[in-house]
# Entry
Amino acid sequence: MSVTSAHMLIRPSGDHTSYSALIKDVMGGRWTSALQACIALNNFGVLVVFLDIIGDCLVGDASKPGIVTTALRGHASIPSIMLTRPVIMALVLVFFILPVSLQRNLNSMKFTSMYSVTYAALFVLTTIVLAVLYWAEGHNVPIRWLPAAGTNPIEMVAKIPAIMSAFICHYNIHPLMAELPHPPQRNMKKVVHYSLGLACALNILVGVCAVIMFGDDTKTDILENFGDKLEVPHAAVMLIVLRLGYVLSLICTFPVILLALRDSLLSMLPCVSGFKESDFGFYLSSVCILAAEYIVCLGVPDILDVITLMASTVTMVIGFTIPAAMTIQLAKGDVVVSLASSVMFWIGFAVGLVGLVVSCYNLSTGAQR
# Structure
């Protein structure tokens, strides 16, 4: 579905340099405003999740300390306040995330994107090595290939938006097309296929390896599983490499997500149109957004709440509802295309609605996910 909806945006792209510009020409200002608000909410939530994961990996908590706290705790020369989550996250933001985030276009992000993929591959490779060593040591964990008896189908459907959120890259399609050699449409289709295919393969590999090691005890956030002690050779070192690779991958992904967030926020404020183009406006808006991310991250008790609510609403709108609605409007008279687009529209709407209702119910009742 993600590949299909991406193709829907590529075909009529023309000379548009942004997702919002295409929607404005085809569907008008109201749809554009809705799209920009959804992109802003989605990307803001994604970056909050990134920061929370980085905090978990570097700081952790009392029961499962992170990389930094494990390495530095107990040193008399380091005050205990310097090892708290707010301080370490502030240092990461200022000295790592802020410098790589001050890039104005996708072309300037090619090296950070390459590093991000490299670190993600390191994370996956470490996971595979751990799974192989775990299996070689004779830890045969029973693997269940089908849902447990009595599993609620509605709960299963509610998980789909969170899975789909890993394949939403639609707001970067048109800026990237503008920087590709001609013909951009053919090249962009290849980029979409390779990118989503690689993302799918990496997610499947990590999931399979986690199930091999932890079986039914595999948690929604598998980093929690990796916080436990594994009875494999050199497990401590490999767990540090795994967490560090994941942290570096997220840091290098920050600029791409922040670019669309910043552009959407400033485009929603016509009074700052000149401010948007100036160097001062660019740097000030970047700092303000990162500061807001930091404050929200420290105040969110559970990132799963952010993921489920965000994926069930704005992610489905960005990735499926708006592309399908646009294609329906462009395909007047083409029954086959209109029917296929309508099917995608209602599937996205129904899955998002089920996910939203279940997420709100779980939050209100305190149900475990």
The two ends are 25 Å apart (CA to CA). The chain has a mean pLDDT of 83. DSSP finds 15 helices and no strands in the chain. Residues 325 and 345 are 7 Å apart (CA to CA).
